[in-house]
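User: Reviewer 2 asked us to show a designed sequence for the structure in our supplementary figure. I'm pasting the structure tokens here. Could you produce the per-position amino acids so we can include them in the response letter?
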């Protein structure tokens, strides 16, 4: 973040306590949030900073005997837990149990495990397949494993990302919008979920193309999920420019029974003591 003056730093009020006391309160708040308290609705798009306390300025201003004094941010020096890092990534809570399993014989799972060990094998992965086959679950499992290895990773649905940018900046990409886009270039891994779910506008295509181009140029890994099961379908849904960029990723088809149907069957049987049969009729 550039152009930041001391006035931009967070000012800790008189009575905030010592840095050690502040750090203890930050840790307690994190634990309460992890336990479900004080949790705001988790949107796919948030103002993402490595530190949401100082907003990446790295220093804060404390009032010491009435005088302002710049000190190191107490939250930055307090290492976050794994679950805090995962929450910060934007991953929806429903994937809290997602994990890659070496016993999973599916081609997609084996490929992701190989990529986890050696990210230089591909610029990214496109997970393609019909709805319900587990594409998003696999992407979530990869992200969780990635973060567990002390790497920075973020998650967003494509629709939510584009809606947020459009609502915030409109059709004008000024300095603020450029700075916002640059944030999405920072993480070593970015998961873009459900691309092509709706017909994008020229405005959306331009921005997605630029994002993919810039991340590839920087050597940043990108995982994309889609319901479109062939390059031709992806081209029809998104247009040639962005479909061409996506084809530079490793294309992996995800096959299998619907995970949602299996979850629904399990829930139905738990409630009724009998498996559901209506969708087979």
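Assistant: Here is a per-position design you can include in the supplement:
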């Amino acid at each position: 973040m550039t152009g930041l003056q001391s006035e931009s730093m967070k000012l800790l009020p008189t009575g905030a306590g010592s840095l050690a006391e502040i750090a203890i309160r930050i840790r307690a708040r994190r634990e309460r949030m992890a336990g479900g308290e004080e949790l705001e609705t988790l949107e796919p798009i948030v103002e993402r900073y490595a530190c949401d306390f100082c907003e990446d300025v790295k220093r804060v201003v404390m009032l010491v005997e009435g005088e302002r004094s710049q000190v190191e941010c107490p939250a930055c020096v307090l290492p976050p837990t794994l679950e805090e890092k995962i929450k910060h990534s934007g991953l929806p809570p429903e994937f809290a149990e997602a994990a890659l399993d070496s016993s999973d014989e599916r081609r997609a799972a084996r490929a992701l495990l190989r990529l986890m060990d050696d990210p230089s094998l591909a610029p990214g992965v496109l997970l393609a397949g019909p709805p319900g086959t587990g594409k998003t679950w696999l992407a979530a499992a990869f992200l969780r494993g990635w973060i567990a290895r002390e790497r920075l990773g973020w998650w967003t649905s494509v629709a939510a990302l584009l809606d947020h940018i459009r609502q915030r900046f409109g059709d004008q990409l000024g300095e603020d919008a450029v700075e916002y886009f640059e944030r999405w270039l920072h993480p070593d891994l970015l998961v873009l979920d459900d691309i092509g779910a709706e017909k994008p506008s020229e405005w959306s295509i331009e921005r997605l193309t630029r994002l993919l181009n810039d991340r590839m140029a920087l050597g940043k890994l990108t995982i994309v999920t889609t319901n479109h099961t062939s390059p031709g379908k992806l081209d029809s849904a998104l247009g040639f420019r962005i479909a061409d960029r996506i084809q530079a990723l490793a294309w992996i088809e995800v096959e299998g029974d619907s995970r949602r149907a299996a979850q629904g069957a399990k829930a139905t049987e738990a409630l009724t003591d009998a498996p559901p049969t209506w969708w087979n009729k």
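For the response letter, you might also mention the following. The chain has a mean pLDDT of 76. The longest strand covers residues 59-64.
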